[in-house]
């Protein structure tokens, strides 16, 4: 009782509105409105306007191309500098070991990971619009680069001519292989940079929307499996070839298992120790996040300890543990990438360019939303393109945003890309001054760093349960992206996943949900009659809604659902009418047969003139007998049902076009056919809530004629309902 009273009180307190206006159809509404006059610009005027330059326009373009000019002069030193310094140092100590480790994924010597952690990071400070993301090496992109490098320069090709067991020949073999793979990786960065630049200049920043979240998460989870399997040989100290392409994961695991007996125990112990230390460090950072001023830099600590232990115990010589080896001091002179490789790696460059941009812009949007600023997707493409393109001349491979480093950069107080610049300067100091100190670093330590950093990606397996509860279609996208990327390789897997995601969009529009709407009593609000008990339908009126546009792929299903939901099939009604008429004619013919026999008998006994009279009296006129004895009234009530023409139980049908975004030529023809067919059985079809763009499309498709007039289109469902009621009352009178 108290609940009911409270409900009534809340209803009384609810704000109400009352509007008195005419019932608007489209023709009446347009007659009372005055369109704004727009003078279309000629192409020449548009070109002239776009080419016109002013100081304000030039300044705007300059700020757009170089965002640093906008924020650096206003940089609040007292508020931001300390946070940026701490953040830059924290990110830099992560950048260094990850750069070395991800170079192994890219199938190039570790020093090239340092180059990729310096040039692009420094350049992004000038051209990027995000204040918080950390640009540089990233596991997924490095893995994609490594796959291409190994495919173009497999071990088998280089091994020809280096069959000798001589150490010198072995070193020459590795040098030749690594040199060629570096050329592939650098050219790949050059080409992906050009693609990103072109997409950015052509304002194609929207391409990232085609990489939906389930697709990206499924793809990155598969990439994590690829990365993990590729690092097993370094963790175990096993010598195996690296595979790329379809089923490369299977081949890699098979190769490791076939040589598991040759595991280097020292390498395994060092690697497992590092994994345990890194996991403990990450757990401490996570649990005491609020108490720690900065995260414990476990990666650089592990690198320093691993390097010290390796140098002190001489692991390379005593236990044959593979180490990083030669790290040349100083920066390399710029060199032009190998242009001849472009045709062979063009498709891979497109995939790397789009995936790299998608990763960066998705992370940038998260931070922008959190801190209340905006990013420019097109400028982000240009910034990444410049980083890859310019960096390729200085031997860096393709880069993007790193999730783990970006989170550290933001959580440690970073406010601007000054933090990124400081982290790149730290890497520069290592390259120029102290790089040689890391030469004894065991490769198993780098493998441990890579594996532990995959922890976040492996957690994405939990998406399966999440998407199972929320959306089966998104679960299908995730699974297809994962399985295809795992077994077909990251390049073909990505293409397969994008194609499947497109198919799901077509499926959703091709198989939309159909509903019959009814009114919430006393309002102009209409809801699904099957969902709410309070919703009531108007007698003789059906309101039909489909939550998709009307076009070639779903026009047939739209018509079928309309007939099924309304319970009125014009073709069936007309067929039933014809059948009833034929049955009616047969019954009359059958009823007239005895009379005709009697007439024929009488004609043998009477005169010709009388015969003529009787014939005129007895013969049917216009399909009915002129004699009252043979009328339908003589038929029994049960038989009378067969002669009544079938009629639909509704007089009006309203199509709710609120969810419709567009109509193509097939959809327009379908709509016109619906109006015509239902008109033949006495049902008036109206269209409600048709948007302006859809109205323009219908006009352009020559939809309106004598059958389909603008009077059938109404501003809202309620307008259409009231108009149908008025029309029905006037017809009944």
From TrEMBL:
SUPFAM superfamilies: SpoIIaa-like. The keyword Transmembrane applies. GO terms for cellular component: membrane. The chain crosses the membrane at residues 100-127, 133-150, 184-211, 249-280, 292-313, 341-369, 381-405, 425-454, 475-507. PROSITE patterns: SLC26A, STAS. GO terms for molecular function: secondary active sulfate transmembrane transporter activity. It is found in: Membrane. It is a multi-pass membrane protein. It comes from the Eukaryota. Keywords: Membrane, Transmembrane, Transmembrane helix. The keyword Transmembrane helix applies. Residues 531-724 form the STAS domain. This is Prestin.
């Amino acid at each position: 009782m108290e609940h009911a009273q409270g409900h009534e009180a809340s209803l009384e307190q609810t704000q109400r509105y009352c509007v008195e206006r005419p019932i608007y159809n489209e023709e009446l509404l347009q007659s009372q409105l005055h369109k704004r006059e727009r003078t279309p610009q000629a192409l020449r005027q548009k070109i002239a306007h776009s080419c016109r330059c002013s100081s304000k326009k030039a300044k705007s373009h300059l700020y757009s191309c170089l965002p640093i000019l906008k924020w650096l002069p206003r940089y609040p030193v007292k508020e931001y500098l300390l946070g940026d310094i701490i953040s830059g140092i924290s990110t830099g100590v992560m950048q260094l070991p990850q750069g070395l480790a991800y170079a192994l994924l890219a199938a190039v010597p570790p020093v090239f990971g340092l180059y990729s952690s310096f040039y692009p990071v420094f350049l992004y400070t000038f051209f990027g619009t995000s204040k918080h993301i950390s640009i540089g090496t990233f596991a997924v992109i490095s893995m994609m680069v490594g796959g291409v490098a190994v495919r173009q320069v497999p071990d088998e090709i280089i091994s020809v001519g280096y069959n000798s067991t001589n150490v010198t020949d072995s070193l020459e073999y590795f040098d030749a292989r690594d040199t060629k793979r570096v050329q592939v990786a650098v050219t790949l960065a050059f080409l992906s940079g050009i693609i990103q630049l072109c997409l950015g200049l052509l304002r194609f920043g929207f391409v990232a929307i085609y990489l939906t979240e389930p697709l990206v998460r499924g793809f990155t989870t598969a990439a994590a499996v690829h990365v993990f399997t590729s690092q097993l040989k370094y963790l175990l100290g096993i010598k195996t070839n690296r595979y790329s392409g379809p089923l490369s994961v299977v081949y890699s695991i098979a190769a490791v298992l076939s040589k598991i007996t040759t595991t280097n125990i020292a390498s395994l112990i060092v690697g497992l120790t590092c994994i345990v230390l890194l996991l403990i460090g990450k757990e401490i950072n996570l649990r005491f996040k609020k108490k720690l001023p900065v995260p414990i830099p476990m990666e650089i600590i592990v690198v320093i300890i691993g390097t010290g232990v390796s140098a002190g115990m001489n692991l390379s010589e005593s236990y044959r543990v593979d180490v990083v080896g030669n790290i040349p001091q100083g920066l390399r002179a710029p060199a032009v990438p190998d242009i001849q490789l472009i045709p062979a790696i063009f498709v891979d460059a497109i995939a790397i360019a789009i995936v790299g941009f998608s990763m960066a812009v998705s992370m940038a949007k998260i931070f922008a939303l959190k801190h209340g600023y905006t990013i420019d997707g097109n400028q982000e493409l240009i910034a990444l393109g410049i980083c890859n393109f310019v960096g390729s001349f200085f031997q860096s491979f393709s880069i993007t945003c790193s999730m783990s480093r970006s989170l550290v950069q933001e959580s440690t107080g970073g406010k601007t890309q000054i933090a990124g610049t400081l982290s790149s300067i730290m890497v520069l100091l290592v390259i120029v001054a102290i790089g040689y100190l890391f030469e004894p670093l065991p490769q198993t330590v780098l493998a441990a760093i890579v594996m532990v950093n995959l922890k976040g990606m492996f957690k994405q397996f939990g998406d399966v349960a999440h998407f199972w509860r929320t959306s089966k279609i998104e679960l299908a996208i995730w699974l297809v992206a994962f399985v295809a990327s795992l077994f077909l390789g990251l390049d073909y897997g990505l293409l397969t996943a994008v194609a499947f995601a497109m198919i799901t969009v077509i499926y959703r529009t091709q198989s939309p949900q159909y509903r019959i709407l009814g009114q919430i009593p006393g309002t102009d609000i209409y809801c699904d009659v099957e969902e709410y008990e309070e919703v009531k339908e108007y007698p003789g009126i059906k309101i039909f809604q489909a939550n998709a546009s009307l076009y070639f792929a779903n026009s047939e299903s739209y018509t079928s659902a309309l007939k099924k939901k309304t319970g009125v099939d014009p073709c069936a009604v007309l067929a039933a009418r014809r059948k009833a008429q034929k049955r009616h004619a047969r019954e009359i013919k059958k009823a007239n047969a005895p009379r005709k026999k009697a007439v024929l008998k009488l004609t043998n006994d009477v005169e010709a003139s009388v015969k003529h009279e009787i014939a005129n009296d007895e013969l049917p006129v216009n399909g009915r007998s002129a004699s009252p004895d043979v009328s339908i009234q003589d038929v029994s009530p049960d038989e009378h049902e067969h002669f009544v023409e079938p009629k639909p139980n509704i007089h009006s049908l309203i199509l709710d076009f609120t969810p419709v975004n567009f109509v193509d030529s097939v959809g327009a023809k379908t709509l016109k056919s619906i109006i015509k067919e239902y008109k033949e059985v006495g049902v008036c079809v109206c269209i409600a809530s048709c948007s302006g763009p859809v109205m323009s499309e219908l006009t352009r498709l020559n939809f309106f004629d004598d059958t389909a007039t603008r009077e059938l289109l109404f501003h809202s469902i309620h307008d259409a309902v009231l108009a149908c009621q008025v029309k029905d009352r006037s017809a009944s009178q």
